[in-house]
Write a structure and sequence with these properties.
It is a single chain. The protein is α+β, with helices and mostly antiparallel strands. The chain has three domains: 163 residues, 2-Layer Sandwich (Alpha-Beta Plaits), CATH 3.30.70; 59 residues, 5' to 3' exonuclease, C-terminal subdomain (DNA polymerase, domain 1), CATH 1.10.150.20; 241 residues, 2-Layer Sandwich (Dna Ligase, domain 1), CATH 3.30.1490.100. It is built from 17 helices and 13 strands. The strands form three sheets. Strands 8, 9, 10, 11, 12 and 13 form a six-stranded antiparallel beta sheet that branches. It has a four-stranded mixed beta sheet with strand order 5-1-6-7. Helix 9 packs across helix 10 and helix 11 packs antiparallel against helix 12. It comes from Pseudoluteimonas lycopersici.
Length: 489
């Protein structure tokens, strides 16, 4: 057993990028937030902010209470992605790296003489020096160990700007001082299961045999964890993507039915565009067999939940039609007074496409009308890739776009492709900057043109017989609902 993995973890990445770009923030507590609102939370905290107990997920109101002079900076995802790629190139100058584990974590694999302790340490120092040539404020902690799991654990053991080596002779006693939650793969739920199994410390976890861990995990993952703790290296099989989705917490100006509907349409259109694209792992394009819709409300524990199942599809118009049918049910609850949006306005929305299948594995489209929708979706994709996302968009999304809602975000284990997820220049921002209503006038013109086109299309379709269930959906409002939880809705 030998050293195999060198793991680079950038410290307080989002906040460090802000401090890199704005020297006046250096040495000051900084919190990065998705929007400037007291009701949101920090998505990143600088090293100085962490000294006050502020972490990712800390509410802004709590952060202000813990550190009154904290600087709250609105996130700039596009800039973080740009810096990420520059840092990846800097690491590449020192050692070939694999796929980034996230936007701020990069595993690198050691080969040959690189696996010797002194040589691995020298590579780590070389990476730090190379990064410092481009960024004098962005630091990284590096862990070196026999496998990726232990290398990631080592990178967290000395922060900021640390370097930790875990050799086979260091295992497992060097891990005993850690808390269970310090180990990758152990969250609140898993920690409770381990406590129920009588394992309440890392030392007891390391002492447990593989059968006991298999029982605690309830699967073979327990045995894999036992092996990882002891430095064993094994390659995990690549898993096919199972879902594509987006969620968004609504701003106060969008906490009404029309605002929630518009944001959901935007999120679904973005997910559908990703569905039709080949991802960074070389997977796709996909077809989807299902859709999960979720809405949460202020002051209500009950959620609006719908889970749809249908024949494999990938075109945006059909997906939006299915979503619209379900939201029409919610709108009827306003008329019947089962839901009062003024008392319990929508708080957050989410939509996820599930049951993904590679497009080439499914029989092609037979219905001419459905093929037209697929062709149109492809044309819209190409226009938006060339001129910027949502240069062309569906009218129901206008409210969300006008309020700059649901912009590009960076998930924990995925580096977004800006061409698919970055919006063109915000429309309301354009009007503020120019003092002109040109963009609004253009929107009204396009709206009138679309209405004429829609009326003509509607008349043409009314003259044709539409086969029941064509394209995987029918007029029956509940035909595709796999499960409807007993709820207010």
């Amino acid at each position: 057993m030998t050293l195999r993995c060198l793991y680079v973890d950038f410290n307080s990445f989002f906040a460090s990028v802000e401090q890199q770009d704005r020297p006046e923030l250096r040495g000051q507590p900084v919190g990065v937030v998705p929007v400037q609102s007291m009701t949101t939370c920090c998505i990143a905290a600088s090293i100085e902010a962490k000294e006050h107990g502020i972490r990712t997920g800390t509410l802004v109101s709590e952060a202000k209470g813990q550190c009154a002079d904290i600087a709250l900076i609105e996130a700039r995802p596009e800039r973080y992605i740009e810096v990420h790629h520059r840092l990846m190139n800097a690491i590449q100058d020192c050692i070939p790296h694999g796929k980034a584990a996230s936007i701020d974590e990069v595993p690198c694999w050691l080969i040959g003489r690189e696996r010797q302790r002194d040589n691995a340490i020298e590579i780590a120092h070389r990476i730090k020096r190379r990064i410092a040539e481009d960024f004098d404020w962005i630091k990284c902690s590096i862990g070196i160990a026999p496998n990726q799991f232990l290398a990631k654990t080592a990178s967290d053991m000395q922060k900021p700007d640390g370097l930790t080596v875990l050799e086979p002779t260091d295992l497992p006693h060097k891990l005993h001082a850690l808390e269970l939650r310090d180990l990758c793969g152990i969250g609140p739920s898993m920690e409770r299961r381990l406590h129920a199994a009588g394992i309440d410390s890392v030392e007891k976890l390391c002492d447990a045999n593989r059968e006991r861990l298999r029982l605690a995990w309830g699967s073979v993952e327990g045995e894999r964890y036992w092996m990882q703790l002891r430095g064993h290296h094994f390659a995990r099989p690549s898993a096919q993507r199972g879902s594509i989705g987006h969620s968004h917490v609504l701003g106060p100006e969008l906490r009404h039915f029309e605002g929630a509907r518009s944001v959901l349409f935007k999120l679904l259109a973005k997910a559908a565009m990703r569905l039709r694209a080949r991802d960074q792992d070389g997977q796709g394009p996909f077809l989807t067999r299902g859709m999960a819709i979720r809405l949460r409300f202020v002051g209500l524990d009950t959620r609006f939940e719908r889970d749809l199942q249908f024949a494999p599809i990938d075109d945006t118009p059909t997906l939006l039609h299915l979503l619209g049918e379900q939201l029409a049910q919610l709108q009827r609850h306003i008329a019947t007074k089962r839901w009062d949006p003024r008392r319990h306005p929508p708080l957050s929305v989410a939509v996820t496409l599930v049951g993904l299948e590679e497009r080439g594995h499914v029989t092609g489209e037979l219905m001419a009308a459905r093929q037209r929708d697929r062709d149109m979706s492809g044309v819209v994709d190409r226009i938006n890739r060339k001129y910027g996302n949502n240069s062309v968009y569906f009218g129901a999304m206008h409210c969300a776009l006008d309020k700059d809602a649901a912009p590009m975000r960076i998930p924990f284990q995925h580096v977004p492709e800006t061409g698919l997820e970055r919006d063109v220049r915000p429309r309301n921002g354009f009007r503020r900057a120019t003092g002109s209503d040109t963009s609004h006038e253009l929107y009204l013109l396009r709206e009138r043109q679309f209405k004429v086109l829609a009326e003509n299309t509607h008349r043409e379709r009314a003259q044709r017989h539409r086969p029941s269930g064509a394209g995987g959906w029918s007029a029956a409002p509940h035909a595709h609902i796999a499960s409807l939880q007993a709820s207010l809705f």
